[in-house]
Amino acid sequence: MILDAQHPLSSGVTADSRLIRAYQGARPDVTPVWFMRQAGRSLPEYRELRVGTRMLDACLDPKLASEITLQPVRRHSVDAGIFFSDIVVPLKLVGVDVEIVPGKGPVLGKAVRTKADVQELTALDPAVLDDALAPIREAVSLTVAQLGSTPLIGFAGAPFTLAAYLVEGGPSKDHLHARALMHSDPEAWQQLMAWTADVTGRFLRAQVVAGASAAQLFDSWAGALSLADYAASVAPASAAAIAHVRDLGYTEHRVGADAVERNVPIVHFGVGTSELLKEMHNIGADVVGVDYRLPLDEASRRLGGVVPVQGNVDPALLTAPWPVLEAHVRDVLERGRAAPAHVLNLGHGVPPETDPDVLTRLVSLVHSVSAES
Ligand code: 1CP
């Protein structure tokens, strides 16, 4: 489907930004940079706005969600906004009993452990999201109207990461129940994954159609899986989730050049997924996000040297003395040159205790170092 003429990619407002060019595999003069979890607890202005509002209520308040999305863009001059929401928002909107507990994360009213539980869950009709996602579409429209030429990234959780919360009933370390269900009842597992792919895919599509210029699928907990389990029992559902946005495109008109049809870029990110990078690319992603465990030159080699990469500053170093962090960032930028294009990010989210001034300084370091070389 071609995005409408007002969409920031179709109208040309964000199509030539550093972020979108890098996601398309070009190397802009300056390496773009944004941070996973840039909107959130490391910012005092975020904590102030959130007083008295529960996390999921904040996500469903278009003005609030939009303002929180814009805060880090104004403060740090990052090259993208990441939409303020959560991976469990579409579960809530489809009727799942889920809350985000402060200091803990998503907690379910009831864990989904048996075939009967899966049947009860999947009886909830994903089509209700078409109306229920209205506050999300509104928040995205408000946000892109303010962002101008800075692209907004929409996101969703991958089916496995969502299933890990659904089956465990909340955050867990090893996702043992989820991995056990995968093998003890493959049929129920497939049903759960297919339903989750539909729910999360619709959430992602709504954000892009409403104005996001790129989409990121977070499979934060896929690193708990063997390559064989990932390929057989998870990757097909992630591909199905991505298929909800894979057909979205726009026509680019550049002065003095023929019009070109382009797809909305899709990034796929996981934690501890060094062994899964190739499979994660193969499900239909354009860009692969790399955590801090693998240097980007090696990650790029594993991806055949042809895939743009995103990452991979170690979040632990944000509290190190500045010269230590600076040397690390320079090394990440250097190794990132092995890939066709590189978007600098952290290897995982901004830790809540991070000094926001360090993030601002890091953005200007990335912009100035990459402009030098
Ligand atoms: O009260 C608060 O401030 C709650 C903290 C918080 C925030 C700010 C949660 C609870 N979610 C969010 C926002 C959020 N979540 C964003 C948008 C903002 C941004 O990136 O700047 C995004 C992209 C997410 C995505 C998300 N939620 C992921 C995938 C990314 C990742 O970090 O791996 C996951 C796994 C979640 C679940 C979740 N939500 C919240 C927490 C604390 C967690 C993790 C819990 C756990 O460890 O299992």
TrEMBL record:
Please name the CDD domains in this protein's record. Answer: URO-D
On the tree of life, the source organism's domain of life is Bacteria
Query: By its UniProt entry, which SUPFAM superfamilies does this protein fall under?
Result: UROD/MetE-like
Question: What's its top-level EC category?
Answer: lyase
GO MF annotation terms: uroporphyrinogen decarboxylase activity
- Pathway(s) annotated for this protein in UniProt: Porphyrin-containing compound metabolism; protoporphyrin-IX biosynthesis; coproporphyrinogen-III from 5-aminolevulinate: step 4/4
| A GO-annotated cellular component | cytosol
Look up the record and give one Gene Ontology term from the biological process aspect: protoporphyrinogen IX biosynthetic process
The EC number on file is 4.1.1.37
Q: Which residues bind substrate?
A: R37, Q38, A39, G40, R41, D86, Y165, S220, H348
Q: Which UniProt keywords apply?
A: Cytoplasm, Decarboxylase, Lyase, Porphyrin biosynthesis
Task: Give start and end of each Uroporphyrinogen decarboxylase (URO-D) domain.
Answer: 32-41, 153-169
Q: Where is this site: Transition state stabilizer?
A: D86
Query: What job does the chain carry out?
Result: Catalyzes the decarboxylation of four acetate groups of uroporphyrinogen-III to yield coproporphyrinogen-III.
Q: Which family does it belong to?
A: Belongs to the uroporphyrinogen decarboxylase family.
Extract the HAMAP family matched here. Answer: URO_D (MF_00218)
Subunit (UniProt): Homodimer.
Listed name of the protein: Uroporphyrinogen decarboxylase
The protein's organism comes out as: Cryobacterium psychrophilum
Q: What is the lineage of its organism?
A: Bacteria, Bacillati, Actinomycetota, Actinomycetes, Micrococcales
